Amino acid sequence: MFNVIRVRNFEELSTRAFEIILKTVREKPEAVIGFPAGSTPLGLYRMLIEDHRENGTSWSGCTAFSLDEYVGMPGYDSESCYSFLHHNLFNHLDIPEENIHVPSGTGDLAASCEQYNELLEAHPIDVQILGIGSNGHIGFNEPETSFDSVTHVVDLNASTIRDNARFFDNDEDRVPAKAITMGIANLMAAKKIVLLASGSAKANAVRAAILGVITEYVPASVLKMHPDVVMIIDEEAASALYKEKR
Ligand code: GLP
Predict the structure, then answer these.
(1) Among 36, 55, 180, 182, which residue carries the largest CB count within 10 Å?
(2) What is the mean pLDDT of the chain?
(3) How far, in Å, CA of 170 to CA of 122, rounded?
(4) What is the mean pLDDT of residues 196-223?
């Protein structure tokens, strides 16, 4: 089912996502979950940390996968996806470090992709959390990425470099030109996908993903072929959709 949940704002979006992830971890303590970096999931991550601290929800049996990593950036670099996810989530939960997987963006990249695909095959994802790029990308799968792609190295689009410069002191020259990302086929293999979109910068991408045709020019449009997707979008992200009563 392709389920679109429209909410008022970022807080509500985070709460709805939190409820889904909490239910997953409570019902299946050995759940495998895919996590994105980026600002959209930060409210969700804050709620998961609070819940772990206050209610003691255990993550000790869970396995975590990062969606992607910048090429040329070692994990210890503070701007890497590895650091971002550790700093904003993993360091505050009790997932054993050996159950946390982030593709390596340094060294032999072909080997890194192959190894990640093997890990993903060995640990099928129960819930994949996604954000969406303003150009419709999911993970770092830019427009025109094959729907059959598995973990691979990508050249980032100019628009993605521009969007992500905010994580690099607004200096586009510091944003890596390449990334390693789970492919579309890896994402589609997840049992459930929860996509979060917040803010007017995502409105056109959300419109194209929901109302447009399924095309590799809009990577998120592939989700319409998945059997279990929940798309949680706030008012601003929904602003280019047809008007309807809430
Ligand atoms: C980044 C990441 C995506 C993320 C998207 C949106 O480039 N690779 O995984 O979902 O862009 O990021 P944000 O949530 O900060 O808008």
Answers:
(1) 182
(2) 96
(3) 38
(4) 97
Active site (annotated) includes residue 68: yes
Output the pTM of the full model.
0.96
> Locate tokens 């086929």: which residue?
185
| pLDDT at residue 2, rounded to an integer | 87
The catalytic position among 69, 86, 135, 152 is 135
- Predicted local distance difference test score (pLDDT) of residue 244: 54
Q: Which of 71, 64, 106, 69 is nearest to 89 (CA)?
A: 64
Domain residue ranges in the chain = 2-189
Q: What is the mean pLDDT of residues 27-54?
A: 98
Q: Which atom of ligand 1 is nearest to the CA of 181?
A: 8
Tell which residue, 25, 45, 183, 173, has the closest CA to residue 103.
183
The answer to whether the beta carbons of residues 9 and 234 sit under 8 Å apart is: yes
pLDDT in tens, 89-111: 999 999 999 999 999 999 999 99
Residue 117 Cα to ligand 1 middle (Å): 21
> Hey, which CATH number is domain 2-189, 3.40.190.10, 2.60.40.60, 3.40.50.2000, 3.40.50.1360?
3.40.50.1360
